[in-house]
Amino acid sequence: MKSRFSIAILMLAAAIPAAAQLVSSHAPTAVAAKPFVPTTQAPPAGKPVARVNGAVLTDRDLLREEYAIFPYARQHNGGIPRAMEADIRTGAMKMIEFEELVYQEALRRKMVVPPARMQKAQTSFRKQFNSQEQYDEMLKAEFNGSKAQLTAKIQRSLLIEQMLKQEVEEKSVISLAQARSFYDQNPNRFLIPESFSVQTISIIPPASATAQQLKEAHKKAEDALRQAKETKSYDDFGVLAEKVSEDDFRVMMGDHKAVDKTKLPPQVLQAVATMKPGEMSGLIDIGNSAYTIVRLNEHIPAGKRTFDQVKDSVREYLKKQKAEELRSSLDKRLRKNAKVEEL
């Protein structure tokens, strides 16, 4: 889990759904009919959590990044699991500090966002709102009603994106030859056991459930099955899982990804072995009066992936690895002479 929170992976979103593509640093957004030069408008009100060379970062910035790391918390009001809170907060803090350092470096280099890109971004952002009233509410809540602050925030996002494109994205391209070399040197990485990619919806009564609670759990499981039969896709089933499932995978749309068949409970393996991708099981009793419903997404036979099958994913993996190294190196360089204080 911790690798998701390194500064190398900058996933962006906003705490307010309507503003989700704006206030984070790399979302495609923002403004203007004439050239803009970098500015440093005062940030929206919020409790300070850090200072980067004197620039204040607030709890609002931190919350947005926490939701970027764990978007399910915002999308389905599930909250951030307590066991993950510390890691997510640490990762989010490092991200917002890194972004501010990148932004300040872009200012130092006197980078400017082209006016056409600003205009396109502003138009794209404005389209996220269903009405002028909704837009005005966001402006008031996030930017004290100031369009100038909004413009500056959008501009900041684009400057960070531009800086990272120059320093990371353009330098992390992986050739086909490099991917082939990695494939040939790491043959065991591409051996795969027979696996099943599944989603689940599970109903799990308390360990010391009464007879009445067990009866209610069975009824709830039957109701979940009825609803599951009405789903038509991965997303439909996943949304239902987030709503009614009681297993740990509910926060990830019930998705277990590919599971080695030896790791599946015998009852589940017996069911999925006869299913086709896209099909769903009935209620499966998995013991202790608990029930699960399984949707099979893919049956993966044992073997070795060919290079043609994995070349794109290998290039993507190596690109992300190289990008992480470049971001980490950039972060170290920018922090070397910076004053970063966590409050």
Topology (SSEs and partners):
Blueprint (H helix, E strand, L loop, with lengths): L47 E5 L2 E4 H11 L2 H4 L6 H27 L6 H12 L5 H12 L3 H21 L8 H10 L5 E2 L2 E9 L7 H19 L4 H11 L10 E6 L5 H7 L11 E4 L2 E11 L2 E2 L2 H30 L3 E3 L1
Antiparallel strand pairs: 1-2, 1-9, 3-8, 4-5, 4-7, 6-7
Task: Describe, in plain words, how this protein is organized in 3D.
By secondary structure, the protein is of the alpha+beta class. It has two domains: 2-174 and 319-342, Triger factor/SurA peptide-binding fold; 194-301, Chitinase A, domain 3. The protein has helices spanning 59-69, 72-75, 82-108, 115-126, 132-143, 147-167, 176-185, 211-229, 234-244, 266-272, 307-336; strands spanning 48-52, 55-58, 191-192, 195-203, 255-260, 284-287, 290-300, 303-304, 340-342. The strands form three sheets. The chain has a four-stranded antiparallel sheet with strand order 5-4-7-6, sandwiched between helices. Strands 2-1-9 form a three-stranded antiparallel sheet. The chain has a two-stranded antiparallel ribbon with strand order 3-8. A hairpin with a 2-residue loop joins β1 (48-52) and β2. α1 crosses α3, α3 (82-108) packs across α6 (147-167) and α7 packs across α11 (307-336). The two termini are 25 Å apart. The relative contact order is 0.15. Mean pLDDT is 85; it is low at 1-44.
Mean pLDDT: 85
Helix content, binned percent: 40-55%
Instruction: Write down the oligomeric state.
Output: single chain
The side-by-side strand order for the widest beta sheet comes to 5-4-7-6
Beta-strand share of residues: 5-15%
- Reading off the top of the CATH hierarchy, the class of the largest domain is best stated as Mainly Alpha
Number of helices: 11
User: What is the string of helix and strand elements?
Assistant: EEHHHHHHHEEHHEHEEEHE
Rounded to an integer, what's the Rg over CA atoms? Answer: 24 Å
Provide the number of structural domains.
2
Low-confidence stretches at least 5 residues in length (pLDDT < 50)? 1-44
Give the second-level CATH assignment, the architecture of the largest domain. Answer: Orthogonal Bundle
